[in-house]
Design brief:
heterodimer, A: 568 residues, alpha/beta, D-Maltodextrin-Binding Protein, domain 2, four-stranded mixed beta sheet, 23 helices, 47% helix, globular, B: 321 residues, mainly alpha, MetI-like fold, 0% strand
Chain lengths: 568, 321
């Protein structure tokens, strides 16, 4: 008996010991972490002293609010940055749902040094105000954002938290690449119809109907006339088309007239569009599964080359189109068409790039002031032309060549590697460059800041099929299908208005989107005689919401923008 | 009546035993046991009782990165929003509907499969069937919903088989009709979990005294008789306990399935309480509403658990508490 008790005692002692080891292990980890922090702190201090002489290495931890891949450890651009500017990067890319991830980060105040912009983080007070620090420590950044300074301020408290990654231009803007919304149509459809000018929605669907009748299958799979993607936050495929059809630019869920915003989801201009969709659905042009598909299934369908048309933003289906290009199915890639209801309306799809508010990096409260200054100084260096060329074009001689006239060009081989995702991970600093402040437009030597905007490079890079296609229309690039953009309204675009988390405006907006997600598919799939009934029900349900709260919030911010953004 | 009479004197006796005075010598005798229970006790306090403090969030307009004292108190506002929202009754109905379907289908299929497996005498076949049927349990829902969506597509295997058997002429769009949604969810649950759920019943069946089967054999009982009168009564206590536990989870209709399979066309049938709370709570940064939803679910769970336990007691069955 005694022996048994003893062994029991021993057992419990072992258990207790192991528990304490585990606990000690956890505690120790924390201690080490703090020690490490102290170390970096010390290092930072020494750098400060030696600044100017030589670079002391420092690490920047970054959260990127979208899915992505880690660059390779021996990436040549990051290595150059490390050698010459001292900064090394530790990226965390989003995996899964952004809201959930941010919810967890906010709840634990667990922020890395820099984070891509998000209104949730701003609302939680996760970013530090940057305006004073930039004035003091980053003259080049200040110069870069000079024209946009007031626009970058948060309408709620007047501080600058996020450095917009796109939209700060120098000089005239010209591009050969359109990434925004349009009605897309397969090039084969236009080719087959003899390269017609397509202006209205009716012409567009007629073309699709004719092509589908002629070619019931493409490479053995049934031809799909029209796709509508409405999945999670990618809802513009279903929601946004009506505003464009009456000649307005992309303002998200509202139409802005004379500085006043109003929703259009339940208005007649929307009804006209959805009735047309209902009609073409009855003709069998719309994919039966279009409303049950997720984003991946949508991309899979497009990359199969069987989809003739859809309304979307170019960047949203870019991956699928790249698959078609890699497979050399150039006739199955797409042209964006700026459709309107009737020819008396001028299209306004193409817009002057607006400042990309609430996107780009902000510095978190956890970085500490010393580190924040280092980071700003780093960006201040990066925004200068020599580094901008490296970030955008690459290394001269390796990634691009300079011809006799001093123009930047690429060899075919360089062009090919440039679209290779694996090559990019080792030779481009895309994750950093995409969200960092950047020059757009032209360098002082006249070269475009982006290879896609260099006209002769674009022409030289065109595939034979596209060259012939554009020649048939007499255009230089696919952007020429659009009417040149007029000057933006000061307050444009309304879609970047922060509705403020948890506010009535945001809840109303969520509910309105829920109703649209529920009723619009129903209306489109209904038999044509039933359409009006479903539509009236939908309008009735929207009428029950406090839409005014939503419109008021947008109008409030638009008014604030007009007051504070107008250059006096 | 006799049974209750018999039980009556036992219960107070048991209570009396519990009330035995705790003496030092007793603690000394059981010190090893007490030591051993310390980590578990700490675990429960740390992970089950301390978080209840977070319930205070439900009565605030909680904002992250503010200290407790800086939070704004709003009373029952969050609960009011939750219960008065138009869609609340709908999501409650969906949750209960799918939960009950899952509960019934889950129990019936698992018990039937366990009974059938138990009758297979060839060990190889039994093991093979068991392994195949419980493998889907290890897939995550994201994969299962992918499989379900693909099989139910207009050119998927389900429509293909039904058309070849001439049950239907046109492919049915299973995922765009609200009336099919609960069934689809129930069937997916069965496919994924049926094998796993049988394990515990098979274990219970293995514990049945073989003498009972032999006695039944001698009395000339057929196979079905033995199933009904020996096997089923033998696993009855297990069934009741599992049922009580499941009833406690009646508001857990699942989240992933509905979230991943749902779409605009079936939203009236697919939205559960969890999705509602995600949409208007967490996705809006309104953590207080999410907490209020959590409290509501917990209260219902505990109530249902006690209720089911009470019923089981009244019926003279095995019970959990």
């Amino acid at each position: 008996m005694g022996g048994k008790t003893k062994s029991m005692l021993r057992l419990s002692v072992i258990l207790l010991l192991s528990l304490s080891v585990i606990l000690a292990g956890c505690g120790g980890g924390n201690k080490n972490a703090t020690k490490a922090e102290n170390n970096t702190g010390n290092q930072a201090a020494t750098t400060e002293n030696n600044a100017g002489d030589k670079v002391e290495p420092f690490e920047i931890t970054a959260f990127i609010g979208e899915a992505g891949q880690q660059p390779t450890p021996d990436n040549k651009i990051y290595k150059k940055i490390k050698d010459e500017l001292g900064a090394t990067f530790k990226f965390e890319f989003l995996a899964g749902d952004i809201n959930q991830k941010l919810g967890v980060m906010i709840a634990g105040s667990d922020y890395p040094d820099i984070m891509t912009g998000n209104t949730k983080l701003t609302a939680a007070g996760a970013y530090i105000p940057l305006e004073d620090l930039i004035e003091e420590h980053a003259p080049n950044l200040k110069k870069h954002y000079e024209k946009y300074w007031n626009m970058m301020k948060d309408p709620n408290d007047g501080h600058i938290y996020i450095l917009p990654n796109y939209g700060a231009y120098n000089g005239e803007v010209s591009t050969t690449w359109y990434s925004g919304p349009a009605f897309w149509i397969q090039k084969a459809v236009l080719e087959d119809a003899g390269y017609p000018q397509v202006k209205t929605l009716d012409e567009y669907f007629d073309l699709i109907a004719k092509y589908k009748e002629k070619n019931p299958t493409i490479e053995g799979s049934p031809t799909i006339g029209f796709e509508i993607l409405n999945y999670d936050w990618r809802n513009w495929g279903l929601f946004n088309a009506p505003q464009h059809l009456i000649g307005h630019p992309n303002d998200g869920g509202v139409i802005v007239k004379d500085g006043k915003a109003e929703i259009f989801a339940d208005k007649d201009i929307a009804k006209q569009y959805y009735q047309k969709l209902n009609e073409v659905n009855a003709q069998g042009l719309i994919d039966k599964e279009t409303f049950t598909q997720n984003y991946d299934q949508y991309l899979a369908k497009i990359s199969s080359g069987t989809v003739l048309g859809f309304f979307d933003q170019h960047w949203n289906f870019q991956d699928a189109e790249n698959v078609l290009i890699t497979a050399k199915k150039h006739e199955r890639t797409y042209v964006g068409l700026p459709l309107v209801y009737d020819t008396s309306i001028t299209d306004h799809y193409l817009d002057r790039p607006a400042l990309n508010l609430n996107n780009g990096f902000g510095i978190s409260v956890n970085a500490g002031e010393e580190k924040a200054i280092k980071i700003l100084k780093f960006w201040d260096r990066l925004i200068q032309e020599d580094w901008q060329k490296i970030m955008s074009w690459g290394i001269e001689g390796e990634d691009y060549i300079v011809n006799e006239e001093g123009r930047f060009m690429k060899t075919q081989e360089q062009r090919d590697t440039f679209t290779d995702a694996t090559w990019k991970l080792a030779n481009k600093a895309d994750a950093l460059h995409k969200f960092s402040p950047k020059m757009e437009g032209y360098f002082s030597d006249g070269n475009a800041t982006d290879a896609a905007a260099q006209p002769e490079e674009y022409q030289a890079g065109l595939e034979e099929y596209d060259k012939n296609f554009l020649a048939a229309y007499g255009y230089n690039s696919y952007v020429d299908f659009f009417t040149p953009a007029p000057e933006n309204e000061v307050s444009y675009p309304a879609w970047s208005v922060d509705l403020v988390e948890g506010s009535e405006a945001k809840i109303v907006n969520t509910k309105q989107n829920d109703l649209s997600t529920k009723y619009l598919p129903k209306a489109i799939l209904a038999s044509p005689s039933e359409f009006n009934k479903v539509w009236d029900e939908y309008v009735g349900e929207i009428g029950k919401l406090n839409i005014k709260a939503y419109e008021d919030r947008i109008n409030e911010v638009l008014k604030w923008r007009i007051d504070s953004w107008t250059v006096k | 009546m006799d049974e209750t009479l018999l039980q009556e004197p036992i219960v107070p006796k048991a209570k009396k035993q519990k009330r035995q005075r705790i003496t030092w010598s007793m603690i000394k005798d059981q010190r090893q046991l007490i030591f051993m229970s310390v980590p578990l006790l700490a675990y429960i306090i740390l992970f089950a009782y301390v978080p209840v403090w977070g319930w205070t969030m439900a009565f605030q307009n909680y904002k992250p990165a503010r200290s407790f004292g800086q939070q704004e108190w709003v009373g029952f506002k969050q609960f009011k929003f939750l219960f008065t929202d138009d869609s609340f009754m709908r999501v409650l109905r969906n949750t209960l509907g799918m939960s009950i379907i899952n509960l019934i289908l889950g129990f019936v299929t698992a018990i039937v499969l366990a009974l059938l497996l138990n009758e297979i005498k060839k060990l190889f076949w039994k093991r093979t069937v068991q392994t195949i049927s419980y493998l889907p349990h290890f897939l995550s829902w994201i994969i299962v919903t992918g499989i379900v969506a693909t099989s139910l597509a207009s050119d998927g295997i389900v429509n293909d088989i039904l058309m070849r058997l001439h049950f239907i002429k046109e492919p049915i769009l299973w995922l765009s009709e609200g009336k099919y949604f609960w069934g689809v969810v129930g069937a997916s649950h069965v496919w994924k979990e049926v094998g796993w759920n049988t394990i515990i019943y098979l274990a219970a069946m293995a514990a049945i005294d073989p003498a009972l089967y032999e006695a039944a054999d001698i009395d000339g009982a057929s196979r079905y008789r033995k199933m009904f009168h020996v096997t089923l009564p033998g696993i009855k206590p297990t069934i009741v306990i599992l049922l009580i536990m499941s009833i406690g989870h009646i508001l857990e209709a699942g989240f992933e399935v509905q979230y991943l399979l749902g779409n605009g066309l079936v939203v009236d049938w697919a939205e559960t309480i969890d999705i509602f709370v995600l949409k208007y709570g967490i996705a809006q940064g309104n953590y207080s509403l999410a907490t209020a939803g959590g409290i509501f679910k917990t209260v219902v769970s505990v109530t249902m658990l006690l209720f089911a336990n009470w019923i089981a007691k009244r019926l003279g069955e095995e019970r959990l508490l």
